[in-house]
């Protein structure tokens, strides 16, 4: 199967977010993914979830980046707002901002957090 050219691919937006928990406990990546897809399925249904194309791009130290389809940013924010519990821990998802690139989202909204470090990508610098 051929790869789609960039002009035919879905445009994405990247949402930088942080999890606010009681007693500053850390939440695991797998736990957050499970809750994200569970809430997405119950709020948007199977069709809406697949159209939204929500994907946890990076997550570390209760901060991360979620990618979604450009036309469904508001639905993705609604899904993130409905997450209240992750594995029995009470959480609040605070969306810091939306960007068109991962690098833009991390520079603007996740400054000082090592979620995505382009310097580690050796093939970019060569």
From TrEMBL:
EC top class named in words: hydrolase
Nucleus found in the keyword field: no
Keywords: Cytoplasm, Endonuclease, Hydrolase, Nuclease, tRNA processing
Family matches, as Gene3D superfamilies: Ribonuclease P, Pop5 subunit
Catalytic activity entry: Endonucleolytic cleavage of RNA, removing 5'-extranucleotides from tRNA precursor
Coiled-coil portions: none
Keyword set includes tRNA processing: yes
GO molecular function, one term: ribonuclease P activity
Compartments, record wording: Cytoplasm
Record's GO cellular component terms: cytoplasm; ribonuclease P complex
One record GO biological process: tRNA 5'-leader removal
Known EC number: 3.1.26.5
Its biological purpose: Part of ribonuclease P, a protein complex that generates mature tRNA molecules by cleaving their 5'-ends.
Subunit structure, interactors included: Consists of a catalytic RNA component and at least 4-5 protein subunits.
Family membership noted in the UniProt record: Belongs to the eukaryotic/archaeal RNase P protein component 2 family.
Name of the protein in its database record: Ribonuclease P protein component 2
Provenance organism: Methanolobus tindarius DSM 2278
